[in-house]
Amino acid sequence: MSSSAVIEVKDVGMTYKTRDGRSHTALEGCNFDVAPGEFVSVVGQSGSGKSTLLRIISGLINNTSGEVLLKGKNVAHSLRELAMVFQAPVLLPWRNNLDNVLLPMEFRKAVTPQVRAYAKELLEIAGLGDQATKYSYELSGGMQQRVAICRALVSRPDILLMDEPFGALDAMTRDTMNFELQRIWHETRQSVLFVTHSIPEAIWLADRVIVVGDRPGRIVADIKIDIPRLRTREHRFSEDFTAYERQIEALIGTPGAIS
Amino acid sequence: MKQPTVIEDLEVTPVAKPGSPSVAPHHKPRRLSASSILLSPAAKAVTGLALMLAIWESIVRIFDMPRYLLVGPLEAFAELAERPMFYLEHSWITIQEALAGFALGAALGIICGAILFYIPFIRHFLYPTLIAIDTIPKVALAPLFIVWFGFGFESKAFVSMAIAFFPLVINTFDGLSSVPSELRELAKINKASRFMQMTKIEFIYALPNLFTGMKISISMAVGGAVVGEFIAGSSGLGHVVLLANSQVNLASMFAAFMVLASISLLLFLFIDRLGKKLLPWRDAGK
Ligand SMILES: Nc1ncnc2c1ncn2[C@@H]1O[C@H](COP(=O)(O)OP(=O)(O)O)[C@@H](O)[C@H]1O
Ligand SMILES: [Mg+2]
Questions:
Q1: What digits encode the pLDDT tens for the residues A113-126?
Q2: Domain spanning B68-285: CATH superfamily
Q3: Distance, CA B193 to ligand 1 centroid (Å)?
Q4: B189, A94: Cβ pair inside 8 Å?
């Protein structure tokens, strides 16, 4: 496909060796790419291999077949300019929020006054400007996850990988976070690969939704979402939205799912 | 004419507003007990201690216990007041042995725990053996240490060390293991060096467990020093206990027990407070 893609996943497969010596194919023949600045959701049932896909792209584990190119280079050899947001915020409780955001830059030995300023700016964008010197235990779960998103963005990654980042939050906070994430993304324009098992969340956030089927995990559809930005609550209940929802539900095979 | 009776103890149940949950919360005024208003936790602990001492003293008096079987706390206090320097000098010796043993045991324990965690090869070969060695009563090692290190300060410090060592091996290992895998992945994605991952995340993450281990170790270290003094030695509180035993001086024996308990408690509280001061995030964060 286009050579300007930030992520190219080419025929990627993953077969785990389990402890008892058997092998388990978690992913098979996956193909897709992500363009610069694009927001792509990955939706599928639990256990369908979504986390495996993200961990392969991040270079944390190695795929057993196919190849992943990041900005045209093989993952193993590229300077992986990417960042990851996990389901749990995993902030360091002994650091205040600003210092938590700066952690990746400390790892890279690259904390400069400009970086500090950018970290503060990110907290501002995330609506946490006045929380910079607070500690994570003083924040709600949703605020903590926003700090974790700032931490991921501070290195200005080409690609932001998010693995069910709002999965542990209650429904209302989750809605708010979706609005926040759309706003943050609209300002920073990173490429995002966003894993979720919530179909509405996947549609509402994304330019494209990649549907993963299971046993073994494979890509069953790659659907372009034609709903204008910035999206509002109204879009959630529009006819187009509902049509996408029905289409994906049918593909995944979870009729009757509520959220 | 008959007066309408006034029901005084009428319980007023709040009427549920339309749309509110049908079960209205029923608030009873909470009875505030004197103890919960007046006493801080420390004051409660002291009260409990005083009560126990009082019961002890009463038993001795009511049953008119012979002095070679049991003496009351008052007599033990009197003994302490009579020879304060004697107890201070011997306490100081025991404290030095215990602190030296604790410092050495804790340092070695932390290093061993970290090595076991970071080097799987060594862990697989040595962890089971270490746990087996831990089941040996350290008291049983005391005679051996005397053979090796003589009758002086060193042998007692080493008994103390042997006892203080294991809680820190295990707690260091557990602390390092408790680091969430996401944090290691975060470090890896950001190309953090092994050293940075240790110093910025893992070591700090393990600190609360380290303090838990030290709290266990410190009072055990005092016990270790006393055991060393039992077996060989002419000084320290262990020696005082043996001496009192040979003289059938129970007042002195109980005085030594009281001093020992106080030393352990103070050292424990010191580490506990230090942990709270250095790691204010511990209870809120983890
Ligand atoms: N390290 C591993 N070893 C063996 N099997 C694994 C491992 N990680 C994941 N799996 C298996 O791969 C499949 C996909 O897992 P995962 O990628 O976590 O799915 P998802 O994130 O979609 O829930 C599951 O069946 C899981 O049991
Ligand atoms: Mg997953």
A1: 999 999 999 999 88
A2: MetI-like (1.10.3720.10)
A3: 28
A4: no
